[in-house]
């Protein structure tokens, strides 16, 4: 008798805390709503508890960026609580997968619940990224994938406080530059950027969003 294919439910844990917390939120959203919740039932009270722990961890991570002594330890504890929640939910999804009548159904369950069927190992740098500066509070490092050597370009970054209305905050001939945001702690910001080439090379290119879609001002 041919051995049935085994399907694994996998959550990809990113070393970057901000990305991990965003991925956890995406997992919860898929799991707690249709079609994910047709495969695994999570009580409303449990949903509320884990979402509260995720909110706490997100706040702790934002606080760490102020570089106040002792906050990293609190952040680590709060993030570990989210990791435990994610692991428990992955185990529940895996149980549903194991009980699936066939491999195709098992794969559908995994994907419906916001997980992967195999580990993601290849990591490529995004074409545009915004990161809190590691040495200076109040600054963001803007990083574009530079245009090809010999191609003249400018790099424009826009900012939004609602994810809808954007304004240009800096344009530079450098693909890496610093932006001083001047926003109060706890502000959520969305960023997008674009490369502007000469008219002969195609002019302004499409807007690129940051990997996480938003970041909290440290």
Determine the strand fraction and express it as a percent band.
Answer: 15-25%
Radius of gyration: 21 Å
Question: Count the helices. How many?
Answer: 4
Q: What is the share of helical residues?
A: 25-40%
Can you write the helix and strand succession as a string? HHHHEEEEEEEE
What is the global morphology? globular
Mean pLDDT: 85
End-to-end C-alpha gap: 59 Å
How many β-strand stretches? 8
Low-confidence stretches: none
Structural class: alpha+beta
Please tell me the total number of domains. 2
Describe this entry's structure for a reader.
β3 (153-160) and β4 form a beta hairpin. The radius of gyration is 21 Å and the shape is globular. It is of the alpha+beta class. α1 (17-32) packs parallel to α3. It has four helices and eight strands. It has two domains: 17-112, no CATH class; 128-216, Immunoglobulin-like (Sandwich). Helices cover 34% and strands 20% of the residues. Strands 3, 4, 6, 7 and 8 form a five-stranded antiparallel sheet that branches.
Question: What is the topological layout?
Answer:
Layout: H1 17-32, H2 44-64, H3 71-98, H4 103-112, E1 128-132, E2 139-144, E3 153-160, E4 167-172, E5 176-180, E6 188-197, E7 208-209, E8 215-216
Antiparallel strand pairs: 1-2, 2-5, 3-4, 3-6, 6-7, 6-8
Helix pairs in contact: 1-2, 1-3, 2-3, 3-4
Summarize the structure.
The chain has helices spanning 17-32, 44-64, 71-98, 103-112, and strands at 128-132, 139-144, 153-160, 167-172, 176-180, 188-197, 208-209, 215-216. Helix content is 34%, strand content 20%.
What structural keywords apply?
Immunoglobulin-like, five-stranded antiparallel β-sheet, 218 residues, 2 domains, three-stranded antiparallel β-sheet, 4 helices, globular, alpha+beta
């Amino acid at each position: 008798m041919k051995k049935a294919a085994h399907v694994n439910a996998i959550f990809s844990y990113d070393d970057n805390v901000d990305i991990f917390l965003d991925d956890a939120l995406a997992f919860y959203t898929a799991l707690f709503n249709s079609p994910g919740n047709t495969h695994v039932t999570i009580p409303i009270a449990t949903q509320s508890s884990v979402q509260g722990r995720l909110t706490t961890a997100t706040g702790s991570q934002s606080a760490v960026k102020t570089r106040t002594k002792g906050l990293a330890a609190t952040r680590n504890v709060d993030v570990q609580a989210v990791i435990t929640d994610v692991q428990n939910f992955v185990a529940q999804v895996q149980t549903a997968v194991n009980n699936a009548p066939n491999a195709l159904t098992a794969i559908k369950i995994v994907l419906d619940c916001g997980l992967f069927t195999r580990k993601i190992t290849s990591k490529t740098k995004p074409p545009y990224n915004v990161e809190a500066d590691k040495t200076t509070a109040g600054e963001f490092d803007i990083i574009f994938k530079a245009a090809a050597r010999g191609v003249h370009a400018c790099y424009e970054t826009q900012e939004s406080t609602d994810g809808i209305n954007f304004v240009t905050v800096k344009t530079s001939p450098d693909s890496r530059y610093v932006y001083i945001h001047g926003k109060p702690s706890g502000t959520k910001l969305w960023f997008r950027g674009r490369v502007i080439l000469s008219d002969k090379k195609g002019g302004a290119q499409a807007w690129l969003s940051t990997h996480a879609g938003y970041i909290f001002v440290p």
